[in-house]
Predict the 3D structure of the following.
Amino acid sequence: MQYRKWKHAGVNLFFTVTTIVVNVLFAFSIIAACEWTARNHFGLLYIFKLPPWLMVLSGIMLLDFISAWLIHYLEHQVKWMWQFHIVHHVDQHVDVTTANRHHPVESIFRALFTLLAVWITGAPIWVLMLYQSLSVLFAQFEHANIRLPRYVDRVLGWVFISPDIHKVHHHYKQPLTDSNYGNIFSLWDRLFGTFIREQRSNLSYGLDTHLREGNEDRIGNMLRIPFQPYRKRTEER
């Protein structure tokens, strides 16, 4: 499908706005949870007395696992959750605007898992804000239409999610679609066996169940996708 840059960006901007609205609505509950867990020393981060640097590192890693990797993995494994996540994957022209292309209901899933992550970890508000800032930065970075020198991408990818690593996830069919779920750290995918390397030249973006429809730039259709009949992907047939 022809890349109409401004129309493509406009659709993704709409979903960026809905993502912001959902996050603002949940912010009050998330902040309240941070304050309560910090005040009562409740959560994994309080099992041992940690120096500040280790609390920051542990907090960021645990928040990344629960509120990014785990929910993303579930969205690919649970059919009714996948129906909402499709909106993110049908984008055939992945760029920096794709990062926040989430159906409003998927944004609710992710906000709920952020809230869950706070309750489990006990992350204080300053750790959460640092994590959220890094999360947004990495989301833009890994979706951006940029190409790092191969050796830089390789070295970076041992710890972090790089553009070439995440682009594999946006390939149009399985098994590559069901890989590289990470947002900041690549170690979760390496640990759980969902890490895959593939040359970007071998990748095609979009989703095999929706490639020929040409409706990924129509907001109304994007909002209706989750309520349409479930379509099996190539590797499931």
The chain has a mean pLDDT of 92. The radius of gyration is 18 Å. The chain has nine helices and no strands.
